[in-house]
């Protein structure tokens, strides 16, 4: 495992919500971070069929363009009753003909798909959020970190916090959705703590233990 020895990195994303969450997570470690969006980097085509492949594509593209280490995230909602969909195509389900993304529409698509197969009970609506972080260096070296959180898909959406599918995901052991939680509640982890709630916080915790500590 390679340690991260610089405090200047690129957040390899154009997703405002994702950039905000990653910057919130890395902030306590004193990083100076700019996003691929701020640097006007072209978004690479995500041609992978796994979260790991797509995270690697994004991180390497930004690391090579910036000449700095880059941290990417590829994440999605995996629903058991839908055979794992939307999965790596989570963002695609939100795409509109004009290229913009509408996650309210995407959540309606998910509910329509579950309704079509009669999945109305919580035990029929089990799901998990998956996040894979990739840290890439300009020389092509990469490290991958995967985090998951189990839960159920609820309807109607609840809450206006977070982003993406957060309002329809209720994590196991909670009666509130990610969309109803503050950032602190959703992540449920700070440096020096052992527990982490969100998929991204769980992946980030492994990243910290692997590349920053020790």
UniProtKB/TrEMBL annotation:
One GO CC term on file? cytosol
Keywords, ordered alphabetically: Hydrolase, Magnesium, Metal-binding, Nucleotide metabolism, Nucleotide-binding
- InterPro entries linked to this entry: dITP/XTP_pyrophosphatase, ITPase-like_fam, RdgB/HAM1
| Cofactor(s) demanded | Mg(2+)
Record-linked Pfam families = Ham1p_like
An example GO BP is: purine nucleoside triphosphate catabolic process
Q: In the UniProt entry, which residues are flagged as the active site?
A: 74 (proton acceptor)
Instruction: Show the catalytic activity.
Output: ITP + H2O = IMP + diphosphate + H(+); dITP + H2O = dIMP + diphosphate + H(+); XTP + H2O = XMP + diphosphate + H(+)
**EC number annotated for this UniProt entry:** 3.6.1.66
Keyword Lipoprotein attributed: no
Q: What does this protein do?
A: Pyrophosphatase that catalyzes the hydrolysis of nucleoside triphosphates to their monophosphate derivatives, with a high preference for the non-canonical purine nucleotides XTP (xanthosine triphosphate), dITP (deoxyinosine triphosphate) and ITP. Seems to function as a house-cleaning enzyme that removes non-canonical purine nucleotides from the nucleotide pool, thus preventing their incorporation into DNA/RNA and avoiding chromosomal lesions.
Q: What family does the Swiss-Prot or TrEMBL record give for this protein?
A: Belongs to the HAM1 NTPase family.
| Quaternary state and interactors | Homodimer.
- Report the protein name in the record: dITP/XTP pyrophosphatase
**The gene coding this protein:** yggV
């Amino acid at each position: 495992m390679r340690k991260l020895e610089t405090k200047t990195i690129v957040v390899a994303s154009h997703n405002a919500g994702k950039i905000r969450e990653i910057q919130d997570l890395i902030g306590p470690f004193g990083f100076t971070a700019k996003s691929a969006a701020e640097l006007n980097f072209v978004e690479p085509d995500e041609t992978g069929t796994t979260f790991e492949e797509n995270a690697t594509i994004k991180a390497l593209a930004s690391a090579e363009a910036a000449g700095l280490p880059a941290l990417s995230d590829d994440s999605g909602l995996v629903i058991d009753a839908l055979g794992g969909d939307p999965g790596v195509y989570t963002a695609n389900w939100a795409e509109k003909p004009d290229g913009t993304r509408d996650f309210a529409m995407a959540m309606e698509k998910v509910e329509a798909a579950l309704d079509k197969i009669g999945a109305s009970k919580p035990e029929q609506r089990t799901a998990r959020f998956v996040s894979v972080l990739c840290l890439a260096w300009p020389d092509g070296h990469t490290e991958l970190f995967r985090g998951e959180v189990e839960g159920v898909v609820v309807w109607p959406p609840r809450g206006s916090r977070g982003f993406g599918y957060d309002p329809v995901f209720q994590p196991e052991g909670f009666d509130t959705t990610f969309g109803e939680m503050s950032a602190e509640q959703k992540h449920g982890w700070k440096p020096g703590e052992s527990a982490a709630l969100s998929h991204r916080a769980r992946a980030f915790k492994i990243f910290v233990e692997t590349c920053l500590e020790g």
